[in-house]
Design brief:
The protein has about 300 residues and is of the alpha/beta class. Helices cover about 35% and strands about 15% of the residues. The structure holds 3-isopropylmalic acid and magnesium ion. Magnesium ion binds next to helix 6.
Length: about 300
Amino acid sequence: MPPARRFPADAVLMGAVGGPQYDALPRAMRPEQGILAIRKALGLFANLRPALLFPELASASTLKPEFVAGLDLMIVRELTGDVYFGVPRGRRTNAAGEIEGFDTMLYAESEILRIARVGFEIAAKRGRRLCSVDKANVLDTSILWREVVTAAGRDYPDVTLSHMYVDNAAMQLVRAPKQFDVIVTGNLFGDILSDEASMLAGSIGMLPSASLDENNKGLYEPIHGSAPDLAGKNRANPLATILSLAMMFRYTFSRADVADRIEAAVRRVLAQGHRTADIAAPGERVIGAREMGDAVAAALG
Ligand code: IPM
Ligand code: MG
């Protein structure tokens, strides 16, 4: 075997956070604050969330196979702005003496521009169609968003830009998901749409993600939660995590060759019929997380 090659610590592979035991904690102490602080501190503003349906899993989707077969879309979600980080936020007592909770949806031009560019760059390397999702019929933040994305598009004449309101996008994703190539959107809308898109791909247990800074250094994680109900039971689907590793090789280490090998190994085990519980059709044999991991390792060749 060749000596293990060491890669610089430009990338981190991470599991998801959360669990019901934290639900009663004040917001500042919830584990979600950890991942949000990491994203912000490392400047990981570009969150890439592909939704790709492996043909073998066409029947695992809750949508009819003809609507999802061949699905390959990429959601580019802005990750360090929006109502997630906007200030002021908190609670106050209004003039009538009633307690109010409030958050601030906020985007600076430069934040919109840099994520728009990521969206255009990725679209240029794929199907050359970018759909920007906003709520510009209601929100001032979105009106600015649309203006800036449109202006950025002048630098990418080969990419066809369209705009869609987020409510319509949520509907179109289940009505005709294959109309999309790349979607670029803000933090909150991207959070919601990427969970929705995951079900098109059969299971949220299949979807990897990359969170990148300006220099493509990144944090990689499955888009699913920590699944506390599955912890320690050898039942989780490890493929989203394994596919996140493939994305790490593709985006941070510029080793598309290694990424291709990992993704091919995942395709191979699916073709061989290996299924964890979340992607098994009724009656299909179910294997555990450990067995699935071993199968991928064996398929790497
Ligand atoms: C995600 C998660 C996080 C988010 C939570 C855990 C804070 O839902 O990565 O999509 O809302 O961004
Ligand atoms: Mg989410």
